Amino acid sequence: MKDPSRSSTSPSIISEDVIINGHSHEDDNPFAEYMWMENEEEFNRQANWLLKQFLFIAQIEEELWEEEFIERCFQEMLEEEEEHEWFIPARDLPQTMDQIQDQFNDLVISDSSSLEDLVVKSNLNPNAKEFVPGVKYLNI
């Protein structure tokens, strides 16, 4: 009886075409892919050097991103300042004593009658101790 797995429809395999683990049978050394282990210390030294270079580059990249972010924030802050009207001493402060006196005279102080009304309607205890920050009072 004939084996069904050896049917004539399957392609024939010639032993010279077979490749195992990425190497053909014709290779002189079947362990060629492991030969790097012969110089493992050199390999580790190079790998460590590459890792340090990668970390150094990553650190520089992070610093550049940080600087760019700070620059963007600073630029946004300057744009906000330009949008709003800010206090400018040379423009907003009075220049002469007359101008200062005029501003002082413009201040309105309430008349004494309204102060008396305020005192009469007050809920505050006039006999209460004066509040001093940081001092604890005991109720005795």
TrEMBL record:
Keywords: Cytoplasm, Translation regulation, Ubl conjugation
One annotated GO biological process: negative regulation of translational initiation
Compartmental location: Cytoplasm
Pfam families reported for this sequence: PAM2 (PF07145)
GO molecular function: mRNA regulatory element binding translation repressor activity
Family to which the UniProt record says this protein belongs: Belongs to the PAIP2 family.
Role played: Acts as a repressor in the regulation of translation initiation of poly(A)-containing mRNAs. Its inhibitory activity on translation is mediated via its action on PABPC1. Displaces the interaction of PABPC1 with poly(A) RNA and competes with PAIP1 for binding to PABPC1. Its association with PABPC1 results in disruption of the cytoplasmic poly(A) RNP structure organization.
Matches recorded under PANTHER family: POLYADENYLATE-BINDING PROTEIN-INTERACTING PROTEIN 2
Name of the protein: Polyadenylate-binding protein-interacting protein 2
